[in-house]
Design a protein that fits this description.
Order of helices and strands: HHEEEHEEEEEEEEEEHEEHE
CATH architecture of one domain: Beta Barrel
Shape: globular
Oligomer: single chain
Distance between the termini: 68 Å
Low-confidence stretches: 1-19
Amino acid sequence: MKFWASIILTAALAGPAMAQDKPAEPPSPQDILDRSVPASWRTIAADDLVVMTLADGGQVIYQLAPDFAPVHVANIRQLVRSGYFDGAVILRVQDNYVVQWGRPDEDPTKPVGIDEHPPAEYDWPLKTLKFKPMPWRDAYARKAGHVASWPVATDGKSAWLVHCYGLIGVARDVAPDTGSSTQLYTVMGHAPRHLDRNLAVVGRIVAGMEYLTARPRGSEALGFYKTGPEQMKIVSARMAADLTAPEQPHWQILDSDTPTFDAWLKARANRSGAFFVKAAGALDVCNALPPVRTHP
């Protein structure tokens, strides 16, 4: 009896100790965001935000990237402020590829005050950018990572914004045409990285992506709509900076130059919890798009 009592007592004493010795579950990406401090977030400037309202009431907000495509972005600001996009339409929705908007080629409306032949703003010297590489390999470039919370890839000499989901590019004709920004597109499927350095990437969707991706697919080549009634009209496009204070949207993005971002990135690459059997231990740059949030 003394023997079994000793065994039971030992087990009872060992139970709590063993529970205490069990390693804590690593924080999830959401845990890290929930615990983040205000300094971990960048506020997106109002003059970099475009508010686009569709005829069905949907509102799409997108951020411009003037540091990567200054001439194209200047064109977009001018087109928005001159009312060029008011009355434009969603031109095509190509499944697993892009949504494109602007005025149809046959539309007689002429843009005013823009550079109709911008330079090819497809990449920039790496040494001019504060590039933060990710530790994992990239299928299309020597390295991929972030510059000021933007997804970027590099060959070691030049660097460029990549065609991830929600990123916005400028439609163009055959080179040397670079597109004047009168027609824009956003990626809505698997990242078409083969487009990198072939078109100007000028921004990203911040909110309202569902109002673009949920649209019926176009039946013509490249997903263009066959008839006018199929094309959803754009009621208005406005720079957030030009709206009244109550109307202005306020958005922040996780700052890629902070320890919070580093922890979030590591958690994204090494998913834990009951659901995951095996952590990937790696992450593609297009699965490392910094999260955004509204703020007062």
